[in-house]
Amino acid sequence: MLYAGGVGSAKSYALLFKALTHIARPGSRGILGRRHMPELHATLWRDFFDIVPPDWVKRIDRGRHSVEFRNGSIVDFVQLGDPARVKGPTIAHVGIDEATEVPEDSFRMLRMRLRQPGHPGQLYAATNPGGRTHYLYRDFVDQATRGHGNAYYRASSLENVFVPPEYHEDLLRSFGGDYARRFIEGEWVDWEGRVWPSFGDHNVLDAAATFIPPEWPRDLAIDFGYEHAFACLWVAWDHRVSPPRMVVYDEHVERRKTLREHAESIRLHRMQEQQPFLGYQSAWADHDAQDRHELLSLPPDLRIVTRPARKHQRALALAAMEAAFRPRQDGVPGILITSNCRTTIEQWLGFRRPRVIPAGDPDAVVEHNERGESIDDTCDAGWMAYWSRIGGHFESEPAYQPGMDDRARHRLFHRWREAAER
Ligand SMILES: Nc1ncnc2c1ncn2[C@@H]1O[C@H](COP(=O)(O)OP(=O)(O)O)[C@@H](O)[C@H]1O
Ligand SMILES: [Mg+2]
């Protein structure tokens, strides 16, 4: 069964309650999963213990993310991103959160494992909707192709009465047009054209006239690449407003260079920072990349310690950026960029969805220029920078906030780090 709904429409909660009905059957073996472990750990794993009656639980294995119950049932929390790791013995039930992110092969593999004798066998999934070429749309929603016995439910964000009304007001302010249809109403809509139609001149500041106050936290965001360009953005956060306003104030974009050469360029940019300058708080980078380790092993003056960027729910991240490009109530947009960042401005303006959508990646937003080079490098760096700090506003998981006191910040980083390294 599939439950698709808007942001905060109780999808994850519904999934967990459904899991309890299976766990209640003695001796059942089940899986709860999501694409990546850091997100799984921070959401389903954590929320599960808010919901499960404590006297059901016999043993919790925090290292392996596994829970054993007094009635002999077992649930494993598993990352589903790699189909090869999804193989295993038969199970009674599997719950998948943010299912549009999960590769089709993993999904099919899990479905085939539902054969534990004596149990009805059920796959239940919850998700924000995707586009209409997505396999879940074909399997569960489209009348013409949906599988026999595949149940489908849909809910709007506004139907969840357990969240404060301000949350709904915030959502309605944030999302417009097709983004709202998908992320508030829970409809499966295809997007076309520009990813960020609201990005334009009103987001661009004259570099010569812009001063970044020293107390604003500054971050780097790195998107690795060799044939695709390597992109590094410098961002500063105006945390006097909530959510904080992001100002992109420098860029380094180049292809076919070694990481050492990039690190040297980044050091030069660093030396040209406006003074006084308190250092960077975070260097966000793709957590899948081996390159993070290489940056760490450079000589001390070039070394860059990166943190895993928040990369899940890309489609939602892109929608949140689109919203932030529009002026807020005070008349100033939530994201600004200085005029020296020429490549970034050009790429953000040209960021479009492809007319032909590649199989297996229905939300692909890769665009190529006339020389066949991808031109979305600074787009990825941009949304990683934004989403790593702001993403928590849209989920029940804690977000890193520039205003946060140091103890809270440390606890949070610790949790993320721990989860990321597992
Ligand atoms: N049955 C419920 N009882 C109490 N609170 C609920 C219930 N269902 C949802 N909520 C609240 O709604 C919030 C959003 O639900 P969640 O499942 O995280 O949404 P989604 O996964 O759709 O983004 C939860 O954090 C929880 O506080
Ligand atoms: Mg959720």
Can you describe this structure?
With 422 residues, the chain is of the alpha/beta class. The protein has two domains: 2-162 and 406-420, Rossmann fold (3-Layer(aba) Sandwich), CATH 3.40.50.300; 201-394, 2-Layer Sandwich (Nucleotidyltransferase, domain 5), CATH 3.30.420.280. It is 31% helix and 19% strand. An eight-stranded mixed β-sheet has the order 3-4-5-2-6-7-1-8, sandwiched between helices. The chain has a seven-stranded mixed β-sheet with strand order 9-15-12-11-10-13-14. Strand 6, helix 3 and strand 7 form a beta-alpha-beta unit. Helix 1 packs across helix 2 (37-51), helix 2 packs across helix 12 (406-421) and helix 9 (314-325) packs across helix 11. The longest helix is centred in the last third of the chain and has 16 residues, at 406-421. The radius of gyration is 22 Å and the shape is globular. The protein starts with a strand and ends with a helix. Residues 395-406 have low confidence and may be disordered. The protein binds adenosine-5'-diphosphate and magnesium ion (MG). Residues 5, 7-13, 160, 162-163, 396 line the site of adenosine-5'-diphosphate.
